[in-house]
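Appendix B, record 7
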Amino acid sequence: MPRALRIAIVGAGPAGIYAADALLKSEAASDPGVSIDLFERMPAPFGLIRYGVAPDHPRIKGIITALHQVLDKPQIRLFGNVDYPSDIGLDDLRAFYDAVIFSTGASADRAMDIPGIELDGSYGAADFVSWYDGHPDVPRTWPLEAEKVAVLGVGNVALDVARILAKTADELLPTEIPPNVYDGLAANKALEVHVFGRRGPAQAKFSPMELRELDHSPNIEVIVNPEDIDYDDGSIATRRANKQADMVAKTLENWAIRDIGDRPHKLFLHFFESPTEVIGEDGKVVGLRTERTQLDGTGNVTGTGETHTWDVQAVYRAVGYLSDELPKLPFDYVSGTVPHEGGRVIEEGGEHLRSTYVTGWIKRGPIGLIGHTKGDANETVANLLEDHGAGRLDTPAAPAEEAVTAFLEGKGVAYTTWEGWHRLDSAERALGAAEGRERVKIVDRDAMLRASSAQD
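Structure tokens (predicted):
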């Protein structure tokens, strides 16, 4: 009797869940069907949505509603608090499944090679995001002693970091931030936040809505220097070809010509300033040096030799995320991705690593918006199913659904389930209700496990 196609997905963030959804919507989902297990190293699902999106973006976090509908499907099981490869390795997965899809995302900060970047007071944006999003595996406190702060980068993560640093704790209290984050932000001394971009307004990677939201806070005065509004032929072509780039540029132009108001926290958006050195004294950040740049006609820039030293006591680099290497899989250290062709993992010799696939940021790098991972998932799943139809998938030794649960229990892995997520969700909502909030996030891993395993 034919059995269901057994698929393991490592990583239960948007990319992994979109891959599961694509499998369920495929022809393979009909008789005998597909059976999908998602493995997630965190006790809770949703990855980037839960631990990478700023808490004052409920619109983006609303994507969880759609992801919930996928995970509610009976063909899907969730195994949370399961780490690859310490709890389950590639050989183990191959023993239980016809194919494995890795969707592990990117959570580390990309390095920035300038002098002084290692000083005390110089931070990676990803680490700060993990702290304010209540990631269980990071410290509960964050040093917020600096009155003047620099943020390097002009993408949405840079905006998130700058906005969280510039807002008051009370503004963020209605969100899901846990008590330790509220207490930390309440002690934040930052009065000035400076965001630096190497190129001009037309090359900024902000999304228009995220940029405009900076100006919604009654406590943040957004300031743009009129001298930074400059375009060359390449910039004009970018604006004409890209509606979002044009909207961003128009917003920045409007801010550059208005009078500066009296909101207490100042957020400066600087363009044509390339960071060249983090300045230190006694091992701590005391400034930032930048070189003024100029457009070269193509939208790129060249240095002018003119430098400026900025009085800041902390520097956050938001120049991109980087994926972690996955044991037993090939890895491109420059791009931070697994080499692939259409999602099929490709070994050094050019051969497809049978039955092994990637999707999301581990596949294409940390670029684009969350919704872009749908296209990644569709491509990967289509190629997986093509390989299945052509008989190119390896046959697992133990495909029964109970085999993997017996394996994890035999190793003593305290895994969480989809039902456990509902219990954790209820516990967080109950904490929020007591304070008139929608949710208060539980941070401690053991507390998450207790809430997930508690019986109704």
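Remarks on this record: The chain has two domains: 5-106+323-416, 108-321. The CA atoms of residues 50 and 133 lie 7 Å apart.
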